[in-house]
Amino acid sequence: MEISKQSIIEAHERINAYVHRTPVLTSESINTISGCSIFFKCENLQKVGAFKARGAMNAALQIPESDRSKGIATHSSGNHAQAIARAGKILGIPAYIVMPSNAPQIKKDGVKGYGGQIFECEPTLQARETTLADVIAKTGATEIHPFNNYHVMIGQATAARELFEEVSELDYLLAPVGGGGLLSGTLIAAKYFSPQTKVIAGEPEGADDAYRSMQSGKIELSQSNTIADGLLTTLGDKTFPIIKENVERVITVSDAEIVSAMRLIWERMKIIIEPSAAVTFAALLKDKASFQGKKAGIILSGGNVDLEKALKLFTK
Amino acid sequence: MEISKQSIIEAHERINAYVHRTPVLTSESINTISGCSIFFKCENLQKVGAFKARGAMNAALQIPESDRSKGIATHSSGNHAQAIARAGKILGIPAYIVMPSNAPQIKKDGVKGYGGQIFECEPTLQARETTLADVIAKTGATEIHPFNNYHVMIGQATAARELFEEVSELDYLLAPVGGGGLLSGTLIAAKYFSPQTKVIAGEPEGADDAYRSMQSGKIELSQSNTIADGLLTTLGDKTFPIIKENVERVITVSDAEIVSAMRLIWERMKIIIEPSAAVTFAALLKDKASFQGKKAGIILSGGNVDLEKALKLFTK
Prior knowledge:
Oligomer: homodimer
Order of helices and strands of chain A: HEHEHHEHEHEHEHEHEHHEHHHEH
């Protein structure tokens, strides 16, 4: 499927009333450290604390009225789970969330806080998928996949579009890559709204499937050996072709580099980002020379992190 | 001295190129917890991490050219010190900062990072004042007091003005009170730009001199028995009259209430605020009934806090 410019514009209008227009922040000291001029699109300050609110809302609003009342469903232990629960609450429809039994209590509480109905399962992909299939068979709910869904990808594209509206002539735009929903959305937004901007992905070394997929030309499986817990997923058959065709490059970074970049953003910018959101800034710092004197956008994807855990990362 | 509406408008234009127009953020979950609708003016995301950048810049720009080249000077161990150092750097003039010898290294580094010249002294008010007088006698620099200075107060007033430009019909606006620079600036901004808005001060119980001064009708001395280290100062003879005449009330809060409010803002809003900045939200939470269903602004004054120290506060 070819995603059209118009579809992004329409998605933006569709979700406008339900999501924040997040601020674009800059920091002199971060620019000095980086040797370039960085514009941070703060999706950590988005509803549910992550860009996921955009795609979930867009997808939910695209379900025909007749089906919508039966609810929406997904399997996720992360930010997408809360975003789906929130979309259900806003639309007054059931939201069914399949979560692994070992999901952190704070994530479960987040989903429950939005009135989402949790179905626990064994912590394997297979268990998650069969449990979700069961729930859908019983309820008639519509699945909204976290990233391998065009409406979700188009919803995520609106973050980059807002950045392009506020900051012109970006040389680069960096987005993290997990399953590729945000990255592919960012790529199509750049294609239509700022074609001169090169889009670069940041990825943890311990889950570098996108990097390897770009090299091999086919979807490689992800490992999960990183603190960036939002980026453990493998690319999907809808996201990979867009990434393959459009991404400039994928830069991988170590967990130590992620923590150090994360700390810099906390300290210098006074905002809280989760490890997955620090991957892009870590990538830029790792290859400073490439960005020297340039104008770069960074999408800070989320801010959902346990404070004690994060502060302990800093004091290690 | 009567501060005019025009003087605030002019200050705003004067400092515009040198400070951030900080975002105004809202949070559904914070609103649910509070029972009212809160608009946070995020001066923690301001240059130097605090509103102090506004007043310092306005005051420095008001010094006649002939004197300006001799530099600017102040005694401060906090955010004002960095703001003065930064103003000096921007204007290409010396900035002399008298700091107590026990000031945290991080604060000294901040001042040095902006090229400020530090003069250490004993940690008493008298030592600070005599050292500053010496520096001024030797250099001919102009003193910029942290709060007891009309140009500083007018500069701080621009934060509230921006909030009023973006959010109309606020029933309340809360600002913290230490020496009273931000509070008096906020009061005069409300008077001219949103007269229906009642301004309320938040103050730590362990430094409740403003509360006591309002009761006695004269300036009472501050104690320093609180973690809100930006609010330890006593009101000045220029700030107190404005506060006395215009403030609706002063709400005092305990350190436990400050930490709890601070944590809520970190967790729910994904932004970092220092204890002094949490005092206002703590005050609102303490007297929820008064704000029920209302529209309230809160000026989050700063975000300069040592991360390790913050972790200890949260895990106590």
